[in-house]
Amino acid sequence: MTLALAIDTSTSRTIVGIIDGDNVLFEKFHEGATDHGRALSQLVAEALKVSHPPKQVVVGMGPGPFTGLRVGISFAHAFGLARNIPVIGVCSLDAIAIDENEYIVAIDARRKEIYWAHYKDGVRIEGPSVSKPAEVDGFIIDQYPDMKKLVALSSSQNVTEPMYLRRPDAVPTAERS
């Protein structure tokens, strides 16, 4: 496998890792849903001190809140472009490591909703979707993407568009009512 910088900003955490095959050389997070921009550059600077330069960037593409995703995805693309290395997108929910045969994993979507997906034998069979928690039975929440799993999934996924499951909160002035 290739030495990878892994980034996810789909949850309230900014998560950064340096992964070399099965070895996690660096993995750290910063808690704060509105602090992705500041935290991401600091975590990446810290990560780059522990290894050789990465050969690829793997980024969580959501689902997640609009601004948080935009920060991580934009940073990943700028980093990759500046170094002429590939950027590979992965569904963030797929990278949440759960040790069960069948499960539904969810993350907070704010507005009293969750982003969720249903898995069987490690394969997503439904979702990602956004729903009220009462509409989804037996989901597991308060888990976060695992950077090692995110990078492992990059060999079978390349999500090229952010997974926005609803319209952003911000709207142009002309569209406000």
* Computed Rg: 16 Å
For the largest sheet, list the strands in their spatial order.
3-2-1-4-5
Helix content: 10-25%
In the CATH hierarchy, the architecture of the domain at 4-95 and 144-167 is: 2-Layer Sandwich
Provide the residue-averaged pLDDT: 94
H/E element sequence: EEEHEHEEEEEH
CATH homologous superfamily annotation of the domain at 4-95 and 144-167: ATPase, nucleotide binding domain
Number of helices: 3
Question: In the CATH hierarchy, what is the class of the domain at 4-95 and 144-167?
Answer: Alpha Beta
From the helix content, strand content and strand pairing, which structural class follows? Answer: alpha/beta
Shape: globular
What percentage of amino acids are in beta strands? 25-35%
How many DSSP-defined strands?
A: 9
Uncertain regions: pLDDT < 50 for 5+ in a row? none
Q: Write down the CATH topology of the domain at 4-95 and 144-167.
A: Nucleotidyltransferase, domain 5
What profile does the largest beta sheet have? 5 strands, mixed
Q: Measure the end-to-end span.
A: 51 Å
